[in-house]
Design a protein that fits this description.
alpha/beta, Arc Repressor Mutant, subunit A, Rossmann fold, 7-stranded mixed beta sheet, 17 helices, 9 strands, 46% helix, 16% strand, globular, binds S-adenosylmethionine
Length: 349
Amino acid sequence: MSQDDSVGTGAGGGEDGLRRSAAFLIDEALGFLFPAALRAAADVGVADHLANGPAAPADLAAATGTDARNLHRVLRLLATRGVVTEDEQGRFALTGAGQALRGDVPFSVRTAVQMLTDRTMWRPAGELTHCLTEGTTAFENIFGMPFFDHFAKDERTAAVFHVGMAAMSDQENAPIAAAYDFPEDGTVVDIGGGHGGLLLEVLLRNPGLRGVLYDRSHVLAGNRLAAHPGITGRWTPQEGDFFAAVPAGDIHLLKRITHDWDDEDCVTLLGHCRRALHPGGRVLVVDAVVPPGDTPHQSKALDLMMMGSLTGRERTEADFAELFARAGLRLSRVVPTPTVLSVVEAVAE
Ligand SMILES: C[S@@+](CC[C@H](N)C(=O)[O-])C[C@H]1O[C@@H](n2cnc3c(N)ncnc32)[C@H](O)[C@@H]1O
């Protein structure tokens, strides 16, 4: 990557400046090969085979059933970004960052990397031009059905998204549950709660609360709460379509939900929440709040995934305020968390 700060800002000028700009953009255009390499490493389980220490590519290839020369090439790129590191004997070792690619560690992101680089994200990302010219998602054009219908097709396909999603959420659930001051009693409904990682953390931290995990039945089947003795008898799974209705409760949690959907769909969903909230209840949208201007933020990349693969978008605080108002709610505050997500709280108008 180009190291010159002036590159990319148009500063510098003249022929040299233009040459540097050209080199910068060539590097940027090649950037997609890093996640490609990360995915390949995740697929063949490289990190698990490095758990016990450094290994030569030939040994690693034998252990993973891969081609040694090609594996070396993948590792060499990953080493440029600190996922692995190469020693003087040409052996590769996991770095601290690379540890999370193992499948057997807490907060493993192996399945999350596979989900985020799955062809259902990758192919639409290559068709963003379609989104620009047509003003629609690219997903249905490629896969012939909406995103969540695709991931309900069969168990194996469903696992790619829902297991990966749960893994992506793992590292953020506890800090989010800790960042918000939940009431001492009442019912928390985790709407589109997936495998229930956030609800589990909320219930563990707040022993007076009860929970409802609300999602599609094939998703609820993979829930983590049933196996957790600490919350037995304090939660129920409930199957349903959140565009038809949502269960009644005191807190409606919507984590990484509104960003999947366009404004009309969000207003429908939030309207159901408004009607199903107990008096004094709150809706907590847990999503990124896009910062203004040039500030780098993960949401600005994820937003393009929402554009290509779904119909949603990442939103600013003003966007959320407008959505809530259309659904009869009022944005009451934004609670930051140590993660990339914030808790955007709304109450009945
Ligand atoms: C992006 S995932 C978020 C999962 C979870 N909240 C998290 O943050 O890990 C979206 C969730 O919404 C669920 N979902 C999508 N459409 C739904 C619908 N119409 N009714 C109920 N749940 C739905 C999906 O099954 C999935 O679990």
